Structures are given as structure tokens and as C-alpha cells.
Amino acid sequence: MKNFICRNQLCLLISFLLSWTFSAQQTNTKDLDIINVKTGSLESIFKQIETQTSFSFAYNNQEIDENQLIEVTESKQKLTTFFSFLKTHYQISSNKIGNVIYVTKLKSMKKAISDKITGIVKGTDGEPLFGATILNRQSNRGVTADLDGTFSMDGIEKNTMLEISFMGYKSDELRVTQGNFYTIVLKEESNQLNEVVITALGIKREEKALGYSVQKVEGNTLETVKGVDVATSLTGKVSGLLVQNSTEFSEAPEITLRGETPLLVIDGIPYGNMSLRDISSDDIDEISVLKGSTAAALYGYRGENGAIMVTTKKGSNHNGVSVAFNTGAMFSNGFLAIPEMQSTFGRLVNTSTNTYNAKGQGSWGVEMAGQDVIQWDPISKSYKEMPYLPIGKNNFENFLEQGYITNNSLSIANKGALGSLRSSVTWVQNKGQYPNSMFDKFTYSLGGEMELDKFKLSTNMSYNNQKSPNIGFSGYTG
User: Fold this and answer.
1) Domain covering 208-312: architecture
2) Which candidate, 281, 226, 258, 138, places its Cα nearest to that of 406?
3) CB proximity list for 264: less than 8 A, separation 6 or greater
4) Where in the chain is the domain with CATH 3.55.50.30?
């Protein structure tokens, strides 16, 4: 009886396992059967497959682009055929584990030609180009050539584009194909613009050909924010040039070049009785600062401390007549804080005569509460009894006025076949914070150039007028 029961139980177990296996085979057969998908994003296609099968998808959304458009050529196809299609056309690989399909991106099959490639960079004359730059465009990493022009780079893949560049030479490109050593020849840049500066007597020379230090400041950089003095605009623009701007009204800044006072040269002519204040910033074409004692050879002993060379405008850059008007204004903020003063107690008062101290001694006297005290009356110019009140407690604040600097310039220029001519007038007004502090500067200039074959004539004339009702002081004295 027991044997019979055991046999029946064994038969039931075998029947159950066969039934489960048959059911699993049916499921797998369904999963590998034909699916119906339409063109769309990769995410939408995965959802279509999940609704038609028992599979689900797993992937890294930072590696797999869910919004990538998949153009399906056949809507009805086997699941295995579809994933072969993704692998071939979209480099998307799949791996089925149970009911989960893991999707990954195929890795690039490119291999490096070798661990290192080497080469040499030369000019057309065969000389090595020390410091030439070799840039890998794919990795955006580069190296520079050594003293003998050689270089080496690691991990370069086949068909990698290299960009080779060097100052004064045309850049070149190289595609890495076969081989580990490359010879690169760069051609000189024929239309390279050399930096030109003005030396003595208006002679133009290349900056690299000079045997002394020189630095140039373009005139248009001085026209952005203009003050009373051109020297103020040079602050921080030239190395070694110290501009000490004064806080006093209408005080000219002090200029030192490497600790010494430089010589001022305007259009090739040295001046000892002029300063940069006498020149309008709108009339300046460029400023060249010559440094070192070597520059003294150009202007003798007066230039031993260096020179500030100013080249003025003498025409227009374009043919024909041109008119330019330039105006600007700056306003001063005034004092950041005004000391607070007490206005409760006044001067000492003589109790016997009821007269306050005329010399202003004792600022902590009796309280100013409106009582009658004999004091000075500025209207009648005599002492008389008046209410003792803090009438002038805001005198200093009321004394200050809004300060400003306005700069206005008008110029007319004409350029023709034989030369050019330019005329300009400039008005600068500086209003201080104290009453009666006003400074006006008027500048008129006329300059031109004439060229005829090998003959060149250049001339310039300038008139400057400065006036102020209260100038020549240090601080306000009343």
C-alpha cells in the first residue's frame, strides 16, 4: 500500500515538472517569437517589446541615449533578428539573463598604432623649430618640440588628426596612418604683421629689431574713460611707469619711469616745458614708452631716464571727409562719510558779561537752548544779544558741491591722394567739490601730412589755454 502511494506521489511530481517545463518552453517560445515594432525613440521601442513579451530592459541612461531615433525597416521580425539589427546599425549590444535584457553600447574597436609616435618639426630652411606645438585634436592634448625640433606623443590611434603650429609659420595638419616617425615641415607666414613702433624723429622700426625695451599704448585705449590729464589714463598700462595721481583739485599727476622722470617727446620733438596735460587724448594716435639708458642715444643726455613719445593724429584712416564728435562726463562720489559733530553745547560764555568766547575756545560750553547771549552778528558786523542756537551745525555738508569732469571734442579730417589734414578742438571742464573750484582747458590742433613720390612732409600745430579762478593751492584755504 505504501509502495503504491509512493509511486503515485512520484508520478504526480514527474507530471508537475514536465508540465512546468512545457509551460516554460511555451513562454520562451513566445518571447523569441515575432514582434511588431514601429520607428521611434529607443525608449518607446523598448516599451513596445515589453508589452508584447515577458522581457524587461535594463541599461545605464548615461551610456544609452533613450531619445535616439531607431528607424525600423521591418515592423514584424524575430526578437533576435531585431537585436542583431540594433548591433549592426546602432552599435547597441544586448545580453539576456532570465527575463531581463541588459543593453550596453559597443566599445570602439580602434586600437593604437603603438604606445608612442615620434617626429621632428622643421622650417623650409631645414632648421628645427624649438617650441612648436603638436596638438591631438581628439584628446585636445598636445606637446611642444624640444631644442632639436623633436617630439613624442603616447597613445595615438590610427587616423588621429594632429595640428602643428608655430609663431610666424603657417599651421599644418597631419593624419596618423602607418609608421612611428614623422617629419613635419612648416612654411613661413608671408603676410605676418610685424609690431612697428615710432622711434626718434618719427622713424618707424620693427619692435623686435630694437636693442632696447619699448612698450606701445594705442590712442583708442585712452579715449574710453577720459580725465583731465592724459597721464591718468596711462595708470597701469605700462610696466615700470608709475603714475602718482593726486587727490588735490587740478593737481597734475607725477610720472616716473623706473624711478626717474622721463623725457616727453611729441611728434619727434622733445619738450621740456610741456606735460601730457597739454595734449588732448582725442588727438593722440599712439604713445611709445622707451625704457633704459640705451634709449638715450636717440635724444642725448635728456633721454637717459627714458622717454614718453607721443604721436598725434594728422588725418583720417579713410579717404574723404570725416567728422567725429566725442563727449563724456564723470561725477565724483564725494566723501564716503562725514564726521558727526555735536550741536548741543556751544562755546564758553562769560557769565559776568553774558558774552561768548570770541576766540572760539571751549567747544563744550553752555547748552545752546535759545537763550539770549551776546555774540557776533555777521550782518550788522557787530556784537549784539541774539538767541544762542546751533545755526551752522550742517555747514560742512552744505558747503560741499557736486564735482564732475566733462570732456568734449570735435574733429574734422580729410584724406586724399596727396595727403591728409586734420583739425580738432577740445574743451575739458573740471568742477571740484568746494565752491569756486573750477578748471577749464581748451585745446586746438591742426596737423597734416603730404606725400609726393619719395618726399614726405609732416607738420602739426597746437594751441592750449588753461584757466581757473582758484588754482595753484594745496588744499582749500577759504
Assistant:
1) Beta Complex (2.170)
2) 226
3) 270, 271, 272, 274, 275, 276, 307, 308, 310
4) 30-105
Residue with cell 568746494: 434
pLDDT at position 197, please?
53
CA distance 428 to 199: 30
Rg (alpha carbons) of the chain, rounded to whole number: 44
Residue with cell 597721464: 231
Distance of CA 157 to the CA centre of its chain: 37
Please measure the distance between the N-terminal and C-terminal CA atoms of the chain and give it in whole angstroms: 135
pLDDT at 26: 38
State the Cα–Cα distance between residues 162 and 140, nearest whole angstrom. 10
Per-residue pLDDT, 2: 35
- Full 3-state SS string of 58-84: ECCCCCCCCCCEECCCCCEEEHHHHHH
**88-106: per-residue pLDDT in tens?**
778 888 888 888 888 888 7
Spatial distance between the Cα atoms of 161 and 163, rounded to a whole number of angstroms: 7
β-bridge mates for residue 70, sequence order: 40
CATH 2.30.42.10, domain 112-186, yes or no: no
The label of the residue with cell 564732475 reads: 404
Question: Per-residue pLDDT averaged across 389-410, rounded?
Answer: 84
Burial of 301 (0-12, 13-18, 19+ CB in 10 A): exposed
Note the pLDDT tens digit of each residue in 122-158. 998 888 888 889 988 888 888 888 888 899 888 787 7
pLDDT (0 to 100) of residue 224:
66
Amino acid at 64: I
pLDDT of residue 209: 45
Q: Which three cell numbers stand for residue 54?
A: 515577458
Where do the CATH 2.60.40.1120 domains begin and end in the chain? 112-186
If one counts every other C-beta atom within 10 angstroms of the C-beta of residue 59, the result is: 18
- As a whole number of angstroms, the distance between CA 256 and CA 306 comes to 10
Nearest to 288 by CA among 234, 224, 338, 215: 215
- What whole-number distance in Å separates Cα of residue 5 and Cα of residue 22? 26
Domain 30-105 = CATH 3.55.50.30: yes
Parts of the chain belonging to CATH 2.170.130.10: 208-312
Cβ atoms 320, 413 nearer than 8 A: no
